Automatic annotation (TrEMBL):
One MF term in the entry's GO annotations: serine-type peptidase activity
Matching InterPro entries: ClpP/crotonase-like_dom_sf, PDZ, PDZ_6, PDZ_sf, Peptidase_S41A, Tail-specific_protease
Keyword Protease: yes
PANTHER family: CARBOXY-TERMINAL PROCESSING PROTEASE CTPA (PTHR32060:SF30), TAIL-SPECIFIC PROTEASE (PTHR32060)
Matching SUPFAM superfamilies: ClpP/crotonase, PDZ domain-like
Any one annotated GO CC term: outer membrane-bounded periplasmic space
UniProt name for this protein: Carboxyl-terminal processing protease
Keyword Acyltransferase tagged: no
Alphabetical keyword list: Hydrolase, Protease, Serine protease, Signal
Endpoints of the signal sequence: 1-25
Domain of life per record: Bacteria
Organism this protein belongs to: Pseudoalteromonas denitrificans DSM 6059
Annotated family: Belongs to the peptidase S41A family.
């Protein structure tokens, strides 16, 4: 795409979005541009204190982009470097994934073996302050900046946790974190559980490597795949397309549509099915977004998998990186919407599962029945965690 690099949003944001178009004449557009330039010049010349004009310009750009949608933003040099590091599978930080709920920053997961996990941060913890600065009603970008730009290696976090009447304080060391996007498990009957946590430049290789390893361990063709995309916030569009192609012999994977020529593209399957037609069940929930929805939509519309769980998030847009100046900064701009193979936009709607499974509790009789089934080689379960009813029921559907 020339100087454009397509990617999907990596952070989970707990609100929907829409585009607003403002009709204006060329004259008024030029006038607004001149006014903005003059305003910044006057501030620089006459304001009582010295002003960092680069920061002021960035704030002006942020203000404009906020009028478009939550995913378009200006990336300074550090933010652009962080984004490239994440897409390449590593970054320096604490190892937490967060989302906004009711004006609060809520931890949805701590990466395994990360500083956050080792410190004891848990899913559901509410972030109150970073190094003494409140983060209540603050955007995720600002909170991330407080963490990444601190001069100390240790970050002090104040956390509200269910069951505690007062905030809990944590000292968490920032470290280089290698992002593992895939883990897997093989049961004794030849069925595979594969979880994809996000989509980066290594995900295709990791999925293919896990499948090849499990094929070798099984010694026979794999009998089926349970693909867990729950709480997968997405990642790179090309990665989602490539992983989809692993399981499809032909057909459309996804199409994108936008106003400029290179935003319009149809991606099709070109490779053999890595599972040779073995059944697939895909698990999704409201935390499955963007690239995860592309994969689920491709497998659903091509009749390649049964989708189970709850409706996905509904982030159906594509962002492009547009380099600015010398390429050290960039705009991350929404340039297209994507459509599933059936031509449907899931933006603000999400993927509807073929079989709805809510995350409730198993009855004691169901637990006993599953335990009895699991005693035989043919029905050996991936997990004995009966609190994850979606996973337990998905296994049953896969093996029917």
């Amino acid at each position: 795409m020339n100087n454009f690099f397509k990617l999907n949003n990596i952070l989970i944001l707990c609100f929907l979005f829409c585009f607003s178009t403002i009709a204006s004449s060329e004259v008024s557009s030029q006038k607004n541009s001149v006014n903005m330039k003059h305003i910044l010049e006057h501030i620089q010349a006459f304001y009582v204190d010295e002003v960092n004009t680069q920061k002021l310009n960035s704030s002006a750009v942020d203000s404009v982009l906020k009028q478009l949608d939550p995913y378009s933003e200006y990336l300074d040099e550090q933010e652009l470097e962080d984004l490239f590091n994440i897409t390449n599978g590593h970054y320096t930080g604490l190892g937490i994934e967060v989302e906004i709920r009711d004006e609060h920053i809520v931890i949805i997961s701590s990466i395994s073996n990360s500083p956050a996990a080792q410190a004891g941060l848990k899913q559901g913890d509410i972030l109150l302050s970073v190094n003494g600065q409140t983060v209540i009603n603050k955007p995720i970008k600002q909170v991330a900046s407080l963490i990444s730009k601190t001069k100390k290696s240790a970050v002090n976090l104040s956390i509200a946790r269910s069951g505690f009447s007062t905030p809990i304080s944590f000292e968490v060391e920032r470290q280089l974190i290698e992002l593992e996007t895939v883990n897997s498990e093989l049961d004794r009957a030849g069925y595979v559980y594969l979880r994809i946590m996000s989509f980066n430049n290594h995900t295709l290789h990791d999925v293919a490597r896990h499948i090849a390893k499990l094929k070798n361990e099984n010694g026979l063709p794999l009998r089926g795949l349970l693909l867990d995309l729950r709480d997968n916030p997405g990642g790179i569009l090309d990665s989602a397309v490539a992983v989809s192609d692993l399981f499809l012999r032909n057909g459309i994977i996804v199409s994108t549509k936008g106003r400029f020529y290179d935003a319009n593209h149809t991606f099709t399957a070109n490779n053999d099915d890595i599972l040779n037609g073995a059944p697939i069940v895909v698990l999704i929930n409201k935390g499955s977004a963007s690239a995860a929805e592309i994969l689920a939509g491709a497998l659903k519309d091509n009749k390649r998998a049964t989708i189970v769980g709850t409706r996905s998030y509904g982030k159906g847009s594509v962002q492009s990186l547009i380099p600015l100046g010398n390429g050290q900064t960039a705009l991350k701009l929404t340039t297209a919407k994507y459509y599933t193979p059936s031509g449907v936009s899931i933006d603000g709607v999400g993927i509807t599962p073929d079989i709805a499974i809510v995350q409730s509790s198993l009855s004691q009789s169901d637990k006993i029945a599953i335990m009895k089934q699991s005693q035989g080689k043919e029905n050996q379960s991936f997990t004995a965690d009966f609190s994850d009813i979606q996973l337990v029921k998905a296994q049953k559907i896969l093996k029917q």
